[in-house]
Amino acid sequence: MSAPFEWPVRVYYEDTDVGGVVYYANYLRFMERARTEWLRSLGFEQDRLIRDEGVLFAVTSAQINYRAPARFNDLLHVTARISEQRRSRIVFEQAVYRVEDGQHLTDGVIKVACLDAERFRPRPLPESMQRIFFDE
After folding, report:
1. Active site annotation includes 17
2. DSSP 8
3. What percent of the chain stands above pLDDT 90?
4. Exactly one of 15, 17, 47, 107 is catalytic; which is it?
5. Which residue range is the domain that position 93 belongs to?
6. Is the per-residue pLDDT at 25 higher than 60?
7. What is the CATH number of the domain that holds 68?
8. Superkingdom of the source (predicted)?
9. Cα–Cα distance between 2 and 6 in angstroms, integer?
């Protein structure tokens, strides 16, 4: 299992409902940002992966558990950790914590497939990614 990657997210007004609480689906957006920034931190830009490697990533499954609400203006830490990896699939364990008090707000298991960008069919991760992911 890989070490966790952390990404800060500030809750904006647009992320909340009328009560000032983060709308449930937005946690998926926060988790997506953390996975994207994790890739970026490893030197992989998704637009270049499509252009140069012919691959893209698609979420195939998302299981989310909501523990406590985040509110307008909270600073959050969103984590992403690989819990399983195959040639064409990565399973992430992710969590959202409030920075102020460290409260665990949400966690999830997100399954992501590597797809051929033209055919939208599963394909192996590029070799450059396999070297990094499988060596972690």
Report:
1. yes
2. E
3. 88
4. 17
5. 5-135
6. yes
7. 3.10.129.10
8. Bacteria
9. 12
